[in-house]
Design a protein that fits this description.
Layout (H helix, E strand, L loop, with lengths): L3 E4 L2 E4 L4 E7 L8 E7 L5 E7 L5 E3 L7 E6 L4 E6 L8 E8 L6 E2 L3 E6 L1
Parallel strand pairs: 2-11
Antiparallel strand pairs: 1-3, 3-8, 4-5, 4-9, 5-6, 7-8, 9-10, 9-11
Length: about 120
């Protein structure tokens, strides 16, 4: 099973920026489709962004133009640059890896808190 460890969360004022990182344990990282999800208090987990094995990216409408997903296959690391943060971005952010033929793996999550 792939192990994922997120970091970079914290507290920031609205309009600020944070950069999340997710380090994967697998040497097959380049073959994994990677995603960021988030879960706000009292809400379900929602997909934020995905990056394919060929670095094709997709974003949820609520983060388009503000967040950027990227990956460094040599470092086995996934990133999420978050700019123009809003209070509604407050959530626990999770890294997820889809590495065939294994089942999807999840990180433990990192808290992002945006205050007004």
């Amino acid at each position: 099973q792939v192990q994922l460890v997120e970091s970079g969360g914290g507290s920031v004022q609205a309009g600020g920026s944070l950069k999340l990182s997710c380090v994967a344990s697998t040497y097959a990282f380049s073959t994994c489709e990677m995603s960021w999800y988030r879960q706000a208090p009292g809400k379900g987990r929602e997909l934020v962004s995905t990056i394919s094995t060929v670095a094709k990216t997709s974003y949820a409408d609520f983060v388009k133009g503000r967040f950027t997903i990227s990956r460094d296959n040599a470092k086995k690391t996934l990133y999420l640059q978050m700019n123009s943060l809003r209070t509604e971005d407050t959530a626990v952010y999770y890294c997820a890896a889809a590495c065939p033929p294994l089942s999807q793996a999840w990180g433990q999550g990192t808290q992002v808190t945006v205050s007004s």
